[in-house]
Every structure is written in structure tokens, then in C-alpha cells.
Specification:
Helix content: 10-25%
Order of helices and strands: HEEEEEEEEHEEEEEHE
Number of strands: 14
Mean pLDDT: 88
Strand content: 35-45%
Distance between the termini: 48 Å
Number of domains: 1
Structural class: mainly beta
Radius of gyration: 20 Å
Length: about 220
């Protein structure tokens, strides 16, 4: 009987069911000059402009954990729509095989070209969530709306083809088991300010790069 039980246990381990795992807690928010952004809050940029956000939504996707550029873990169905109207979307867990090595997190701000050409899907990619243009233009990677000095602005940043590819990849330094992904938006609102960016193009790519260059990852 002991031999039989040992054989069953070893068989379960071989299938992966008995494998030890770790839980990584991931959260994401946005800030203006280090101040956490809240909808309808008022923030002042370096040009002394008054900025209010009525909508903050963005995609984080293709999340991986790496060690020295070697991929240790890839999240399944890795599409997270962060919506500040739904605070529960700003926190989630990664359940990974037990790992004793130092790790980095890698992810995309936006939706990759392969997913875009596959057409609109369900879950966080459901077009009814307001982050999908058309099959030609694809998904909106980042949606920011509000007022600058009481004048309305709308930034819908996306595009996946050629020089209009706005998706951006991020690789962090070493991280712990609690990961905070912070989009610092002050640089975006201290450069050239537009009333509206609503389609793929050079402006959307440039603004997406500004956001990614200001991302901070910490515990």
C-alpha cells in the first residue's frame, strides 16, 4: 500500500499538480508628480495648468517574469484592462511555480498586433468596454479624458501597424513578490498638449512612448 501511495504521489507531481507555487501581488495606478490620480481630482503640471481626469483606462498585457532575460513564467490570457471607475481592476495575482531566483517583470502597455488582427474578443478585450475602435484600427491602448484649464481633452492612444504601432514593452529591474506599476503622467502633460488625439498615428506613438518612459515599478 505504501508503494502504491508513493507511486500515485509521484505521478501527480509529474503532471504538475503537486508543484509548489508562489503568489505575486500586482497593482497598478497613475500619478501626477507623485500624487495618486483620482477621478475628478485636480492636479497642477509644471506649466501651472489645472488638470482633471474624468476617465483613466489602459491595458497591461503579455506579463512575464524573467531572470537574466530568460522567461520563467508567462501569464495565461494576459490582458488586464485597468479602469479607474472600477478599482477592483487595479489589483490581481500571479500564481507562478516556486522560484528562488531574483526576477524581473516584463509587460506591454497596450495590445499586440496579433491580438488586434484576431478581431474583438471577450473578457477584458470585450468591445463593449469602450476600448475598441474597429477591426481596421483595433484596440485603444490608453484612454485619458478630462479637462485642462476647464477645456475638455480626449486622448485615445492606439495603433498596431507599421509606424503607427503604439504598443510599448517594459522590462523592470529586480522585483519582489509585491509589484506596483505606476504610470507617472506628469511628463505627458508637460510636453506639447493637444485637445484631442483620437486615432492611430505619430502623435499616439509619441505620447505612448512618453508614458512608458515615465513608468515606475516598485514594491
Amino acid at each position: 500500500m505504501k508503494f502504491l501511495m508513493l507511486s500515485i504521489f509521484m505521478g501527480i507531481q509529474a503532471l504538475g499538480f503537486g508543484q509548489a507555487s508562489e503568489v505575486y501581488q500586482v497593482s497598478s495606478t497613475a500619478t501626477m508628480n507623485g500624487q495618486v490620480v483620482e477621478l475628478d481630482g485636480v492636479y497642477i503640471n509644471s506649466n501651472n495648468d489645472s488638470i482633471q481626469f474624468s476617465k483613466v483606462k489602459y491595458y497591461l498585457s503579455r506579463i512575464e517574469l524573467q531572470h537574466d532575460r530568460d522567461v520563467l513564467f508567462t501569464e495565461n490570457q494576459s490582458y488586464h484592462l485597468i479602469d479607474f471607475e472600477k478599482p477592483e481592476t487595479q489589483n490581481w495575482e500571479l500564481h507562478i511555480p516556486e522560484n528562488r531566483q531574483s526576477v524581473q517583470i516584463s509587460f506591454q502597455l497596450g495590445i499586440d498586433s496579433l491580438t488586434n488582427v484576431s478581431g474583438a474578443m471577450g473578457g477584458d478585450l470585450d468591445p463593449t468596454l469602450g476600448m475598441y475602435w474597429t477591426w481596421q484600427s483595433g484596440y485603444i491602448n490608453v484612454k485619458l479624458e478630462g479637462k485642462i484649464n476647464n477645456q475638455e481633452f480626449s486622448y485615445h492612444l492606439g495603433g498596431y501597424s507599421g509606424d503607427q504601432n503604439a504598443v510599448q514593452r517594459v522590462l523592470s529591474a529586480e522585483i519582489g513578490a509585491r509589484i506596483s506599476i505606476e504610470l507617472e503622467l506628469s511628463a505627458l502633460f508637460s510636453s506639447e498638449i493637444y485637445d484631442s488625439v483620437m486615432s492611430p498615428g505619430i502623435q499616439a506613438v509619441s505620447m505612448s512612448k512618453i508614458i512608458v518612459e515615465s513608468i515606475r515599478i516598485h514594491e
